[in-house]
Amino acid sequence: MISVGAMDLARHERETMRRNGGIYKVTRAWRAFRKDDAGSATIESVLWLPLFVMFFVLIADVSFVFHRQTHILTVLQDGNRALSVGRLASVDELKDFVRERISYLSDNTAIDSVISSGVVTTQVQVPVHDLVAVGMFDFLANYNINVGSQQFIEY
């Protein structure tokens, strides 16, 4: 139960607020703003959105690297097979074959191919920054992808 003195004090505060109308309106608006939680999920989403976008870009970059690595491996296997059955005459032709088919990926490829003990071995080294889609992450720029393949000579 509220005492008479407390009621008079509350009435006095209301009257003072009414006379100072602008302050009372601002105070009431501030209280309503603090209690209203509409749109709070939107704020959280806006705060987290850049992290989600960066995460998906990282996934896309890594996916492109793996996809292109697999493509390079397929080209190496095709070239080694062509040399092993006699369609390509020398290791230099094999290097040209591989370079021609992966040239759209990178100009910075290092191709090494040798025939030893009846096995043709081909290695390709490509910088990762040439294989990514977006290139937003610098920590991937200092790495190289090494792809290798071996095939027995059949002729």
Average pLDDT taken over every residue: 85
Mind describing the biggest β-sheet? 3 strands, antiparallel
Count of DSSP-assigned helices? 4
Poorly predicted segments: none
Q: Cα-atom Rg, whole angstroms?
A: 35 Å
Counted beta strands: 3
Topology of this protein?
Layout: H1 4-19, H2 21-35, H3 40-85, H4 91-102, E1 110-116, E2 119-127, E3 144-152
Antiparallel strand pairs: 1-2, 2-3
Helix pairs in contact: 1-2, 3-4
Domain TadE-like: 39-79
Protein name: TadE-like domain-containing protein
Organism: Thalassorhabdomicrobium marinisediminis
Describe it for me?
- With 155 residues, the protein is of the alpha+beta class.
- The protein has two domains: 4-35; 68-152.
- Helices cover 57% and strands 16% of the residues.
- The protein has four helices and three strands, in the order H-H-H-H-E-E-E.
- The chain has helices spanning 4-19, 21-35, 40-85, 91-102, and strands at 110-116, 119-127, 144-152.
- The chain has a three-stranded antiparallel sheet, covered by helices on one side.
- A hairpin with a 2-residue loop joins strand 1 and strand 2.
- Helix 1 crosses helix 2 (21-35) and helix 3 runs antiparallel to helix 4 (91-102).
- It is rod-shaped and about 110 Å long.
- The termini are far apart.
- Residues 39-79 form the TadE-like domain.
- Keywords: Membrane, Transmembrane, Transmembrane helix.
